[in-house]
Amino acid sequence: MSAALELRGLAKRYGSFVAVEGADLAVERGSFLTLLGPSGSGKTTILMMIAGFTEPSAGQLLLDGQDITALPPEKRAFGMVFQGYALFPHMSVAENIAFPLRVRGQGRAERDEKLRAALDLVQLTGFADRLPKQLSGGQQQRVALARALVFDPALLLLDEPLSALDKKLRAELQEELRALHRRVGRTFINVTHDQEEALSLSDEVAILNHGRIIQKGAPAALYERPRSRFVADFLGKSNFFQGVVRELGGGWLGVQVAGLRLRQVVDGPRPGLGAAVLLSLRPEKIAALGAEESADNIVEGVISAWSYLGAGFSLAVETALGVLRVHLPAWRAPFVPEIGAALRLGWAADAPTLVDDDDAA
Amino acid sequence: MEGGYSPGRFGRALGWATALYLVLPLFIILPVSMTDQRFLSLPHEGLSLRHYAALFASGEWFASIAQSFWIACASTILAVSAGTLFAIAAWRINRRATELLRALMLLPLIVPSIVYAIGLYRYFGWWDLLDRFAGVVIAHGVTGIPYVVITVSTALASFDVRLEQAARGMGASLRQVLAWVILPRIMPGIVSGAIFAFIHSWDELVIVLFIASRDVFTLPRRIWDGINENQDPIMAAVAMLLIVFTTLLLVVDLAVRRRRDG
Ligand SMILES: Nc1ncnc2c1ncn2[C@@H]1O[C@H](COP(=O)(O)OP(=O)(O)OP(=O)(O)O)[C@@H](O)[C@H]1O
Ligand SMILES: [Mg+2]
User: Fold this and answer.
1) Interchain contact, A103 vs B166, CB within 8 Å
2) Which of A124, A94, A126 minimizes the C-alpha distance to A111?
3) Which of A20, A135, A304, B60 could in theory staple to A139 by disulfide, Cβ–Cβ 3.0 to 4.6 A?
């Protein structure tokens, strides 16, 4: 059975240092939540409080509505994949995976059956008798996963399970992890500082900075509608424009940015005339316009740097708004870029988002 | 050490000289034990095994060897249980107070054994433990604890605490964590500690001189008496046997370490 988990004002202080401050979070049954944040933002601390290894300074932890804040880790028995896996070096793959079953005093036959199923699940049949040190990084990671899943835990906790792997293997295992989540239907809580991993794996992402959950939501919602500069910058790349509201229309604003008037759609609360605002514009939402083409916002510029990325080009374009970062898909770029070439750029009035300037890097 | 820097000619010579210096006394014992004379000396006319034969025929020497062996076994068990439990507790609690306790546990290594022996003599007199098997076992067991504390603490220092967390997270009780995760990982340290504690008891003389007299007459004590009273070469034969036995133990220790590291 899968479980719903709720964090209520969960906090951890070390002396006067606040590692996690008042985290509120509800994790739905069977969903895949990722905690994403830069190094030292408190991700591991939150996970360790959920697992029961770190005692919270304040707040509550509820599993299916029951308060488990004071329960020791062996009573919670959540599956956990540690950073670096923490496989028992003196036990074979089979012994490692069967460990939680042995702890529960299950019989030989039952154990063997579950072990076989678990080895199957992570495609390691035939590796049962090896020691952890005789496995590759990816295989070790799969043993750790099998060991965490074999006893049907209510919740699976993963602390940067893929961070030690190279890029290609990481991509492969991300696929596997997602498929695994679909197959077993458990609640997964994953920790990472890799934003691509967070976007591609999760049903929901919570973004942390300095021990605080800054924003949470579905990956697409977070990417498309970041509420603050930090989120927009951490989750993907963005161009930022500092401006002042000079015009109020029906559902749109006229924003003055460095001598240019930009047309901007707003759907949330509207800032008043004269208010200072910050716009965030994704590089891939900027188009290179042909001579006859038009757009809500148009700016002229000169290419100051470019690079080829295979699927497209990444350009730095000098404009009246400052240097704009632009991504063009290769098949739509109307030219081969060249430093010094002039370019007309345009974007729709609903492409940028208004964000809070939390001024965090 | 594959791939390390190889030592220069001078370094190599120095190394061999040191090793030779360390083992030279041992090599003197061998010919002395095979002397054809009736007192401790190098062989004059030829080699002879008669002192070995005499040793094996002598009931006294054998009684001492057996007694030493059983005392060493019992005191090793005492030292290993107490030392291992203490090291694990100190490692888990890890406060400033445990640092102090750890220093206390190492005291028998630092205090000269003669001082220790005098103290023990007093207490054992009150408790009626003088010249008793149990008395010597307690004395050797307690003074053997530091060896175990040192080797087990060293093994624990390299123990990854996440292994313990992982085991607990999977539902293991404290006892299961100890038996299945912590003890197997630090077993080489425990075995090393046991071997040192055993050797410590096996060749301990000073304390025994104070707290034992007639009923308990260990091997080192008999050698000591033999040297003082007559210059019987049988002692060299005994010494040879001791060397062989100790070397065997150290080889076992090495093998255990090799298995852990390999
Ligand atoms: N035992 C501790 N004592 C004092 N401070 C601690 C302790 N454990 C963690 N911290 C601090 O709490 C903060 C959050 O740590 P945490 O390990 O949760 O970060 P993280 O988000 O997991 O980072 P990373 O991505 O580097 O793993 C850090 O600033 C860290 O220095
Ligand atoms: Mg961490």
Assistant:
1) no
2) A94
3) A135
- Give chain B positions within 8 Å (CB) of A77: 169-171
Rounded distance from Cα A266 to ligand 2 centre (Å): 37
On the question of pLDDT at A243 being above 80, the answer is yes
pLDDT in tens, B136-184: 999 999 999 999 999 999 999 888 888 999 999 898 998 999 999 999 9
Report how far residue A197's alpha carbon sits from residue A265's, in angstroms, rounded to the nearest whole number: 30
Rg (CA), chain A: 25
pLDDT in tens, B184-208: 999 989 999 999 999 999 889 999 9
Expressed in angstroms and rounded, the spacing between residue A32 Cα and the centre of ligand 2 is: 18
Q: Do B184 and A90 touch (CB under 8 A)?
A: yes
The size of chain B, in residues, is 262
Instruction: Give the structural domain span for B84.
Output: 59-261
Question: CA geometry: angle at A94 spanning A93 and A98, to 5°?
Answer: 120
Non-local (6+) Cβ contacts of B88 within 8 A are B152, B156, B178, B182
In chain A the domains, ranked by start, together with CATH numbers, are 3-233 (3.40.50.300), 234-355 (2.40.50.140)
Residues with Cβ–ion distance below 5 A, ligand 2: A 44
In a domain? residue B5: no
The residue with tokens 């995976």 is: A97
Q: Which of B160, B171, B184 sits opposite A103 (nearest CB)?
A: B171
Residue A291, number of CB atoms within 10 A of its CB: 5
Q: Does B37 reside within a domain?
A: no
Provide the whole-model pTM: 0.77
Q: Please determine, for residue A333, whether its predicted confidence score (pLDDT) is greater than 70.
A: no
Residue whose pair of structure tokens reads 């003196």 in the numeric block = A90
- Give the confidence band of B262 by pLDDT, cuts at 50, 70, 90: low
CB contact (8 A) between residue A103 and residue B176: yes
3-class DSSP assignment, residue B99: helix
Q: Ligand 2 center to residue A44 CA distance, Å?
A: 4
Rounded to whole angstroms, the Cα distance separating A17 from B240 reads 64
> What's the ipTM?
0.75
Q: Is the dihedral of CA A85, A86, A92, A98 positive or negative?
A: negative
| Residue A96 clears pLDDT 60, i.e. is over it | yes
Structural domain contains residue B22? no
Determine the pLDDT at residue A173.
80
The CATH number covering residue B174 comes to 1.10.3720.10
Residue B32 C-beta-side C-alpha neighbours within 13 Å: 19
Tell me the two tokens of residue A295: 């757009």
Give the distance from residue B171's alpha carbon to the nearest chain A alpha carbon, in angstroms.
Answer: 4
Q: What tokens were used for B92? A: 């888990």
Is the CB of B163 less than 8 angstroms away from the CB of A88? Answer: yes
Nearest to A90 among B167, B170, B185 (CB): B185
Count the domains in chain B. 1
Closest CA to A19 of A210, A215, A213, A216: A210
Q: Is residue B208 part of a domain?
A: yes
CA dihedral (B181, B183, B186, B187) in degrees, to 10, reads -130
Q: What is the mean pLDDT of residues B118-126?
A: 89
